[in-house]
Amino acid sequence: MTDTTLLAPAPGRSLFGALDRQAPDALLGLIAQYRADPRADKIDLGVGVYRDEAGATPVMRAVKAAEAVLLAEQGSKSYLGPEGDTGFVDLLAAIVFGPLAGSDRIAGVQTPGGTGALRLGADLIARARPGATVWIGDPTWPNHAPIFREAGLTLAPHRFLDGAGAVDFDAMLTDLAAAQAGDVLLLHGCCHNPTGVDFSADQWAAIADLCAARGLLPFIDLAYQGLGDGLEADAAATRQMLAAVPDALVAYSCDKNFGLYRERVGALWVQGANAALSALAFSNIVALARGIWSMPPDHGAAIVRTILERPAMRAQWTSELDQMRTRINALRAGLATAHPQLAAIAGQRGMFAMLPVTPAAVGAMRADHGIYMAGNGRINIAGLRLDTIPAFVAGLVPHLPSA
Length: 403
Fold this sequence. Notes:
The chain is an alpha/beta fold. It has helices at 26-36, 61-73, 86-97, 113-128, 144-150, 169-176, 201-214, 231-244, 275-292, 299-308, 311-338, 359-369, 389-396; strands spanning 43-44, 106-112, 133-138, 154-159, 184-188, 217-222, 248-253, 265-271, 352-354, 371-372, 378-380.
């Protein structure tokens, strides 16, 4: 029998003893609380996944069809290389960039989800400009800040929302007046998470002009294409930005619009001022990817490629995506008509909205009505059904600020 006392490190000698205990993820804790709640009428608006009218997150029919093809036809599970499935990257680029997709200024790689794309892009920035400043709107997706911070970059917040839940564009531009050439501006390509509030076309044009004039690098996080106003409409701002600036980064997620959450499917594209700079950046992206995850997972990207390269499957996917978007926007309309203080939700897009409630109010709604949502007031619209909107609004209204 091994004497475990011999394995104990000398006091103060353990490498791990220097670590600080980290707080558990609040959203994961919320999921556990929801599952343990026995109430039949509980409502889950916390976890950020699409749900259908039955409350399920089903595998899309197009995905099942593609998996059947892969099962029958895929001849190898050998490595693809650090750049991943190049067919996936090229076919997806056509959906994202449209006519710009064939440009020799744009190059991309497959990544483990949109999060992997963001981290890979952050590491590229850190390699090119150590400690570079990344301007991030407040609020934003909670994981944005840790991703860039862990890459060694400097974070600078800018204002995003006004008191009425609309874009406070003047305040944003005022804050960005302090941005310097070489700084990075993180932007949500569509369907802002957590607010659902997007820039107008004129505001996007102004941001593009600002980046071009001030030498800022736009880093676009495009995680919900097709779930706002449609595939083309949701890509318009990204295309507008890339047409206006010399350099840019685009992180993409297939988790939501293909329903491939657990497959971790994403891509990162870089645009350089010319083909040579694009190739230079691409070589560094590939080298960084090799050092982080070596080779990306294949299955999810192969599913997307199989769908996009077969017209019938692509049509099935776009039809299913249209149904998802229609459901989300119908729920937004239902919320907007349920109470005057929710009217703005109809004009927002994507899966999320931010409600003007305090953390204490969120806790009270959970305790009294079984309504589960993030402590900052973010709700997943898709967690509702048309028939649960009245109960949700009834539990919410007492906690809304006086009009």
